[in-house]
Amino acid sequence: MCSHCDTCKTLSGGASTLNTIIPESDLKLTKGDLKHYTYKGDSGKDVNCYYCPNCTTHVYHHQTVMGPQIVVRTILLDGAKEWKPAAEIWGKAKMSWEPEVATTFEIMPPS
Predict the structure, then answer these.
(1) How far is CA 95 from CA 6, 16, 30, 84, in A?
(2) Residue 6 carries which DSSP code?
(3) Alpha helix (H) ranges present in 1-111?
(4) CA-CA distance, 11 to 31, in Å (whole number)?
(5) 3-class SS shares of the chain: helix, strand, coil, % to 5
(6) Is 26 exposed, middle or buried (0-12, 13-18, 19+ CB in 10 A)?
(7) Any idea what DSSP says for residue 10?
(8) pTM
(9) Sheet arrangement for strand 87-89
């Protein structure tokens, strides 16, 4: 999934981020420990952001509104260079010059 939300753009320094949603129990860190901070998402619920304290890469975040699912930065996963986004979210915040690479939703896909 390609996210155009302002938080993702700010954290990445880019026009969007590529993310994959997985169950938190499926994430296996192979090295090091992560630190985290929390902010309120648009839902009003907590978003916990986990990052490497050495290089400050944001590895994943957990939007508590999503239950046990987490949002992982796709490029950090094995084989990620071959994956294409299945959807674009937060299309309402997309930069006008970006091409559409997948079905775009104004905010999130319907549940």
Answers:
(1) 10, 9, 35, 19
(2) H
(3) 6-12
(4) 22
(5) 20, 35, 45
(6) exposed
(7) H
(8) 0.85
(9) 35-40, 46-51, 58-63, 69-73, 17-23, 2-3, 87-89, 103-104
Query: Cα 40 vs. chain centroid, distance in angstroms?
Result: 15
Task: Return per-residue pLDDT of the chain as tens, 111 residues.
Answer: 999 999 889 988 999 999 999 999 999 998 899 999 999 988 899 999 999 999 999 999 999 999 999 999 999 888 888 999 999 999 999 999 999 999 999 988 886
Give the CA angle between residues 85, 90, 91 to the nearest 5°. Answer: 80
Residues 6+ apart with CB under 8 A from 67: none
Locate 2 and state its tokens. Answer: 């390609």
Please answer whether residues 102 and 14 qualify as being in contact, where contact means their C-beta atoms are separated by less than 8 angstroms.
no
